[in-house]
TrEMBL record, chain A:
Species this chain originates from: Calocera cornea HHB12733
Task of the protein: Component of the NOP7 complex, which is required for maturation of the 25S and 5.8S ribosomal RNAs and formation of the 60S ribosome.
Molecular function GO terms recorded: ribonucleoprotein complex binding; RNA binding
Low complexity: compositionally biased ranges: 508-519
Protein name: Pescadillo homolog
Domain of life: Eukaryota
Lineage: Eukaryota, Fungi, Dikarya, Basidiomycota, Agaricomycotina
Automatic annotation (TrEMBL), chain B:
SMART domains: BOP1NT, WD40
GO cellular component: nucleoplasm; PeBoW complex; preribosome, large subunit precursor
Keywords of this entry: Nucleus, Repeat, Ribosome biogenesis, rRNA processing, WD repeat
Keyword hit for Nucleus: yes
Residue ranges, compositional bias (Acidic residues): 39-103
Record's subcellular location: Nucleus, Nucleolus; Nucleus, Nucleoplasm
A single BP term in Gene Ontology: maturation of 5.8S rRNA from tricistronic rRNA transcript (SSU-rRNA, 5.8S rRNA, LSU-rRNA)
Family: Belongs to the WD repeat BOP1/ERB1 family.
Domain BOP1 N-terminal per the UniProt entry, residue ranges: 154-414
Comp. bias regions, Basic and acidic residues: 16-26, 336-358
Name the UniProt record assigns to this protein: Ribosome biogenesis protein ERB1
Entry GO MF terms: ribonucleoprotein complex binding
Gene (UniProt): ERB1
Subunit text: Component of the NOP7 complex, composed of ERB1, NOP7 and YTM1. Within the NOP7 complex ERB1 appears to interact directly with NOP7 and YTM1. The NOP7 complex also associates with the 66S pre-ribosome.
Length: 635, 759
């Protein structure tokens, strides 16, 4: 006899489990279940049929794979959570009985879970972990900036700040930074680590607005996971770089707001303290390697221009002499080793030049946020000094002769502060240089200048153009400019044509008292007239057009003239329209033979394309209007 | 005496108040003030308890009468209240007298006979008994007899309850809120007053009571004299109290003198555990010893970890575009309308969660308000949003459109209006038919008029009116030049007079030869009669059929034809033979309403379409061959390919189904392209074309190639949409028919026109 099939024992009913069911099965509170889901990376799934998965009920529910839940049941973290529940009861009892000694000894034994195995499970290989640290970095950078309060412990914030600094140190050391973008939300950074693009967003240095409806329990659970993840990732990255992790922190420097300078990167075997940047090292002379490195730094942008690479080095070498590098250069010894390292890492994009700012000594003025810009500049090889108000430990003072650039964000350079041999630039210059991969002329970015638009480096303009999206003039270069001009011409052409017609119309009705008025009325052509002109044989249309003209107060002679002109125009355009119409009809007829599924997909894609086109057109229209306005202002 | 005074004050509220005060001044009463009116019964009880033997022989009677009296008194309470009072006063006086004279115990009271004012009969009135101070009732009785009911039930009444004799206890006078306030201000003792619940009066609490309350509030023993710390009295211990003899004579066991073995074992277990380090004073320390971070991804255990596939990686956040820049190109900045539109939109519907803004320098960029919120939303997405792997199609939508040959290559097919046959009066033209030679077109309209037109000229050459009902069908015979007209209840055979005489004669002979050899009449069968009332010139004969025939279908050889009258139920379908003037109904019973019938062009097969199914019958073997299920709701039209192997079915639910009869009972293709119901479909007899006419006012022409190779599917290519008919009252084109030889078609519409479409 066949086995009896029971309802809810096979298929979707067995494969999925609602959240309530899962919570009941695991015997945990909802909060603990949430914590487990966050830590283990469990997410709900969408069953094919909700009704089948929910045993016939259509009540809203979120579903999990039953196997996922069964898997959670063996989780060591779950066991620890249960232990913690028991511990909390014991502690509460001891405190309630005022047994302080017991409470103290209990507290020392508080069960704490470790997340090592969770990290290993979620990210079986190191690459997986690196691929997924975007969110971790964002959150850690955010918490590093939040103030401690009753919800967020100061230790957490301290740890976040530390992790953020360690990450930045690593990126600076390996010159892994690729793109920077100043957005209205914060500063986006993109680095390339182990061949993976890691993007993170750092808020601007202000007090963050914390909305009341944000559940900090969830955020802190995520943060707990992310801290562990980042710790392990950084450990691996540092050890791969032959560095000691965690890097020792100098408390006194940290207290004096030295930022990343408070950390010391220590080589593992040598056991030698090698501060990344100390004034001591600047005393060293220029090595041949340094020069070569500088040369390489300058080569890269030149190669992007498409010129033969062999020819470049010589000519550039001459330029190098002119560049303000002749001061005792102080490339860090650690960096010497890095040159090869960088090669091995092989930055994929040819435009990226990790030693872009290597020849420069940049001074950060006090109104510029130091941590972000110090990070960017040093990632690209610059040596950085800063105003004493931005923290201690600046290797250069403002009077230092060797300073080549001053990053300043003031309406104008204060009187008497200008020194010759220095470039004064706004912060955007740094970022634009990084994104363009070459040193841009500083003049455009001088303090007080109207800055050129800052474009996102994450947009692939070529691809956007292929897809029919809008590429701004600044990104598209000449090609786009030409397009714009053409369009302009087309527009002008149309205008002219209109004018011609108007003239014709004005001439035709000689009996009319106010020809200009007629022309105006013709401008907004009545619909019936157009229809009648398109199909002159149709008497009813003609009649409608006559009635319309009568209602509009147009004399019969004028109407006749209008009609004639319209018919002429319609006939002129008719063959073209006919062809277009035929093509359209053929296409719509071919659609008859499509299957329903394909037709739906087709309609959806068409809709998407249409929407994108609209968006592009809107931006183009706006741009044209802006240009027109500009022209008018110039005239 | 106090009770007596109180009793006296029952009737008069003001007086009683004074009395209460007197009570207090006396300092006798502790607790509720006694306002009882003593009762004769009570006094009886008291007396009996007092041990008086002497019975009251009249007690029963007296009490009865008194009860009656009392009842009556209640009935007419309001009237006699004054008198009652008087009586009471009298009683009191009497009692006082008696009290003076003798003790109550010693003299039983005799009832006084009084004439009742109400009934007029004499009644016994017992003197009231004064419960003296030490009697039980005097102190314990609650003067208000309403029991344990909330006092607010009496809120709306002038009294607050009833005394033992059922008389109402009046509400003590109560001052208003102002009085209350003034009393709190003026009276220094007002804080120590309380409301007596049973009387509703304010009672001044005595110092003893206050102290009692204070003790209870302090959770002390209410008894002030109680001493919780009395010295204990040692009854059994102490010198001089030793027992001289033991309780048992059993000798003391040894275990009382030696240390416990089990205790020792237990202690040693712990000691060993401590020595071995299993017990540490503060729990295991192993967890803390592990380093916080270590090389997690060592190569050794990489394979081990892949027991279970890791969760799907979360999709990354979309990277910012130019519009998010702090200084974007100007065209990205929103106009006022765009800004308003964005603000009016629901936050979930917004394409971007920010509005582009422009700042001239970096120092002007403020903090982003929603930063924390966005991070939080992202986290919610990470653990609450279902994750699905979706394949993104990156193809050109045009590649989805099937590649069909261009209509230009598939010519000829009708493309334009050639001739328009205008029907006078704009009557809806229901049916149309081509003559066998393609020179004439017959149309039938809704007013029962049938017209013949010269096809290429558009001239009406013949006209005949067959009743005032709509013409159901007009069908030209495929063999001889005559046609059939289906109108309500009859089929008319017409040989049009404009034809050449030779053709007419041939047709006439063909149609009327059977009159010479009349067959035996079959009951219920349609009758073939020569046209008696000649309805039109050329009208030859009439076949009477039941119902309202809607369709006629000729067999290819021109001898048989079938008629369908859907409203005639079982007699809906008739097959007629022209040469024998014989009609028969092929079905005894029909499942569903028959909509259409058709003969197979080559084989003796017959197709019958009901609302939802098409059935194919073998007429020779008289059996059902197959049932086709087009999946349409209501079949409107049917046409068979000249090869007989394909079938198209049009429906009122806007669909057209193509059947390959070799393939099965399901349609090969179902097409939906008309926006309204399909009215007619037709295969061209000479060309690989078919047309469908619809209520949307269009005729759609398809090129349909049928291949001899069984493996190749028919190729259907839409080639032309013919527009020209107007839609009137929801009806568009009602019929379409093909020229027998050319690629022309004629369509008829609700706008009173028949249009010849030619290439």
């Amino acid at each position: 006899m066949a086995k009896i099939q029971r309802r809810g024992k096979t298929g979707a009913a067995k494969m999925y489990m609602t959240r309530t069911h899962a919570v009941r099965k695991l015997q945990v509170s909802l909060a603990d279940f949430r914590r487990l889901c966050i830590l283990k990376g469990m997410y709900p799934v969408e069953p094919r049929s909700r009704k089948k998965a929910n045993k016939g009920s259509t009540a809203p529910a979120s579903f999990y794979h039953a196997k996922d839940i069964a898997y959670l049941a063996h989780e060591p973290v779950l066991r620890k959570l249960r232990e913690h529940k028991a511990f909390a009861k014991k502690l509460a009892r001891a405190i309630g009985r005022q047994e302080w000694f017991d409470a103290k000894s209990l507290e020392a034994q508080e069960p704490k879970y470790r997340l090592d195995h969770v990290i290993k499970e979620r990210y079986p290989t190191f690459i997986d972990a690196v691929r997924d640290i975007d969110d971790a970095l964002c959150l850690v950078h955010l918490f590093a900036m939040l103030p401690a309060n009753d919800r967020i412990a100061p230790e957490v914030i301290e740890n976040c700040a530390r992790l953020a600094a360690e990450w930045q140190l690593y990126v600076m050391r390996t010159h892994a930074l690729r793109k920077v973008f100043l957005s209205i939300k914060g500063i986006y950074f993109q680095a390339e680590v182990m061949g993976q693009s890691v993007t993170w967003l750092v808020p601007y240095m202000f007090t963050q607005h914390v909305p009341a409806d944000v559940d900090f329990r969830i955020m802190l659970t995520f943060l707990e996971l992310y801290q562990t993840l980042l710790g392990f990732v950084l450990f691996k990255l540092y050890t791969d770089e032959n560095l000691v992790y965690p890097p020792p922190l100098d408390q006194t420097k940290d207290a004096a707001a030295a930022g990343v300078g408070a950390f010391t990167l220590k080589e593992a075997e040598a056991g030698l303290d090698i501060p990344i940047e100390t004034p001591v090292q600047e005393a060293k002379g220029v090595s041949a390697k340094d020069v070569r490195k500088v040369l390489e730094g300058i080569e890269a942008p030149a190669s992007t221009d498409g010129a033969p690479e062999e020819a470049q080095p010589e000519s550039m070498a001459e330029e190098v002499d002119e560049l303000p590098v002749e001061q005792p250069s102080k490339t860090i010894p650690a960096l010497d080793g890095d040159v090869e390292m960088d090669d091995s890492l092989a930055p994929s994009a040819p435009s990226v030049n990790p030693s872009l700012f290597a020849p420069f000594i940049v001074y950060i003025s006090r109104e510029v946020t130091r941590p972000s810009f110090e990070f960017v500049l040093r990632s690209f090889g610059a040596r950085v000094g800063w105003a004493p108000t931005l923290g201690s430990g600046s290797p250069y003072t403002e009077d230092d002769e060797r300073i080549t650039h001053v990053v300043m964000d003031r309406p104008q350079i204060p009187d008497g502060a200008i020194r010759t041999g220095r470039h004064y630039v706004q912060p955007q210059w740094v970022v634009d240089c990084v994104n363009k991969g070459r040193i841009l002329p500083e003049g455009m970015y001088a303090p007080g200048q109207t800055l050129p638009p800052h474009l996102s480096p994450f947009v692939d303009d070529e691809k956007v153009r292929e897809m029919g999206g809008y590429v701004p003039e600044e990104a598209g270069g000449e090609v786009e400019m030409a397009d714009e001009e053409e369009e302009e011409e087309v527009l002008i052409g149309e205008d002219e044509a209109d004018e011609e017609e108007e003239e014709e119309l004005a001439e035709a009705p000689k009996a009319m008292a106010k020809p200009s008025k007629a022309a105006k009325s013709a401008k907004a052509l009545p619909p019936a007239l157009v229809a009648a002109a398109a199909d002159p044989s149709d008497a009813s249309l003609l009649r409608a057009a006559e009635l319309e003209a009568e209602a509009g107060g147009v004399s019969f002679a004028a109407f006749q003239a209008q009609l004639k002109a319209e018919i002429r125009k319609a006939q002129k355009t008719a063959p073209v329209q006919q062809r277009k119409k035929e093509g359209k009809e053929e296409e719509s007829m071919a659609k008859i033979m499509m299957t329903n599924k394909k037709r739906k997909l087709y309609e959806k894609m068409k809709y998407g394309n249409e929407k994108r086109k609209d968006e592009t057109e809107k931006l183009e229209r706006k741009k044209a209007a802006l240009k027109k306005q500009e022209k008018r202002l110039q005239a | 005496m106090a009770t007596a005074v109180a009793r006296a004050s029952v009737a008069n509220g003001t007086k009683r108040k004074v009395d209460d005060l007197n009570d207090k001044s006396d300092g006798t009463a502790l607790g509720p003030i006694n306002l009882t009116l003593s009762d004769p019964e009570e006094s009886d009880g008291e007396e009996s308890s007092g041990g008086e033997e002497e019975p009251f022989p009249e007690l029963d009677l007296g009490s009865d009468t008194e009860e009656d009296e009392e009842d009556e008194e209640y009935d007419s309470e309001d009237d006699i209240e004054g008198e009652e009072e008087e009586e009471d006063d009298e009683d009191e006086e009497d009692e006082d007298d008696e009290d003076d004279e003798a003790t109550p115990e010693s003299h039983p009271r005799a009832p006084k006979i009084v004439q009742s004012d109400i009934t007029g009969f004499p009644k016994k009135v017992y003197p009231e008994i004064d419960a003296v101070y030490d009697s039980d009732s005097s102190t314990e009785e609650d003067p208000n007899r309403i029991g344990n009911v909330p006092l607010h039930w009496y809120d709306d009444l002038p009294h607050i309850g009833y005394d033992i004799s059922g008389k109402r206890v009046m509400r003590p006078a109560k001052g208003d809120e102002l009085d209350k306030f003034l009393s709190t201000v003026e009276d220094p003792t007002s804080w120590s007053t309380a409301v007596d619940k049973s009387t509703g009066a304010q009672v001044q609490l005595t110092p003893e009571e206050l102290e009692l309350i204070g003790r209870l509030a302090r959770a002390e023993n209410p008894d002030g004299d109680y001493d919780p710390y009395e010295p204990t009295v040692e009854w059994f211990t102490g010198p001089g109290k030793e027992m001289t003899m033991p309780l048992t004579s059993r000798p003391e066991p040894k275990s009382r003198f030696i240390p416990s073995k089990w205790e020792h074992k237990k202690v040693m277990k712990i000691v060993r555990a401590i020595r071995q380090g299993r017990i540490t004073p503060h729990g295991p320390v192993t967890a803390a010893q592990q380093p916080q971070y270590y090389a997690l991804w060592s190569t050794a255990d990489e394979a081990e970890a892949s027991r279970r596939p890791p969760p799907l990686p979360a999709p990354k956040v979309r990277l910012p575009t130019h519009s998010e820049s702090y200084n974007p190109p100007k065209e990205y900045l929103p106009t006022d309308e765009e800004r308003k539109e964005w603000e009016d939109m629901d936050p979930e519907d917004r394409p971007e969660n920010y509005l582009p803004r422009s700042h001239d320098t970096l120092r002007h960029v403020p903090a982003y308000e929603d930063f924390v919120k966005e991070r939080f939303d992202r986290q919610l997405d990470l653990y609450l949003a279902p994750r699905v792997r979706r394949v993104k199609l990156n193809i050109d939508p045009e590649s989805l459109v099937p590649k069909l040959p261009s209509p230009k290559e598939l010519r000829p097919f009708p493309v334009a209006q050639n001739v328009v046959f205008e029907h006078p009066g704009k009557a809806r033209v229901r049916c149309v038919s081509w003559s066998m030679d393609g020179e004439w077109v017959a149309t039938g309209d809704e007013r029962g008029v049938v017209r013949c037109w010269e096809a290429e000229v558009g001239k009406c050459v013949w006209e005949g009116t067959f009743g005032d009902q709509p013409v159901g069908a007009v069908e030209w015979c495929p063999k001889y030049n005559f046609f059939l007209i289906a109108v309500s209840g009859a089929l008319h055979l017409v040989i049009p007079p404009f034809l050449p005489p030779a053709q007419r004669a041939a047709a006439h002979t063909y149609c009327t030869s059977a009159f010479a050899t009349p067959s035996a009449p079959v009951p219920d069968a349609p009758k073939w009669t020569s046209a008696k009332p000649l309805l039109a010139d050329g009208h030859i004969l009439t076949v009477s059929v039941p119902g309202n025939p809607k369709q006629l279908a000729w067999h290819a050889k021109g001898d048989y034809f079938a008629s369908v009258a859907p409203d005639a139920a079982a007699k809906a379908v008739w097959i007629h033979q022209v040469t024998k003037h014989h009609s028969q109904s092929p079905f005894r019973k029909v499942k569903g309403t028959v909509q259409l019938v058709s003969f197979h062009p080559k084989q003796p097969h017959f197709f019958v379409a009901t609302q939802k199914y098409v059935r194919q019958y073998d007429l020779v073997n008289q059996k059902l061959l197959r049932t086709l299920t087009p999946g349409l709701r209501w079949i409107s039209s049917l046409s068979i390919h000249p090869s007989g192997e394909h079938l198209i079915v049009g429906s009122y639910d806007r669909k057209l189904a193509w059947f390959d009869l070799e393939m099965g009972t399901r349609p090969f293709r179902v097409l939906r392209y008309h926006s309204r119901a399909l009215r007619s479909v037709a295969f061209s007899p000479a060309h690989p074309l078919f047309a469908s006419a619809s209520d949307d006012g269009t005729v759609q022409i398809f090129h349909a190639t049928v291949f001899a190779d069984l493996m190749t599917d028919p190729r259907i290519v839409p080639v032309k949409v013919l527009r020209g008919h107007e839609v009137r009252e929801g009806l568009g084109v009602l019929g379409v028919r093909w020229h027998p030889r050319l690629s022309w078609c004629v369509s008829v519409g609700a706008d009173g026109r028949a249009v010849l479409w030619a290439n």
